[in-house]
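Continuing the series of single-chain predictions for the mutant panel. This is the parent chain; the variants come on the following pages.
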Amino acid sequence: MNMRLIANVLGLTVLGAGLVFGDTIGNPVIERVDHDTCVGCSFALATPFAPASGTLSTWSFFADTTGRSITPILYTLTGGQFDIVGIGTTRTVTTLGVNTDPFGLVTGTDAVTGSNFYFGYRDGGAIFGTGNEGTVSLSYTSTGTLMYYFGNGSPDGPENVGISVGQTMLGGGLLQRNYSISATTVPEPMTASVAVFGLLALGFLGRRFSRR
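Parent structure:
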């Protein structure tokens, strides 16, 4: 029996099981034709992150207007409902064109630990009364990564609701639009290190067996 081959196969199995790869979701961050006029609405990209793909690290968008705020959000989708699990740092847009920022976790989690994690944002700040119109450039199409939007079911308008961890998003639906926004996860360094260590250790054992 070829013990070196067995050790190498086992090492690759450990690597494949333990190494978490990052992921990027969304659309090309380019100038498009319009932006939202909904005040304080929240949104979620219709494509989830790859399962257990690490930590939500950065996000990018194309701004076609300045002076407004935008807050990044991490959701889970369970039983047809989007729930907020993480809220990042609110940014006031000062630069037209491509903006790239860290997620900057404020509350909740930034860890993508399953197959049902989605990225999105709110036009405005996270708290009551801080909603504003949109700044992310969009186009009207049924292709690419589409977007869900939520009004949160408030008769007074979504700007008077705010967002919080654990909140279930209400109202709205799937928009036939592409938004110039994307988000990226990165693998946990410790997870990758442990997997590589296991591969090297098993390879070493394989070499020892092959010499006998």
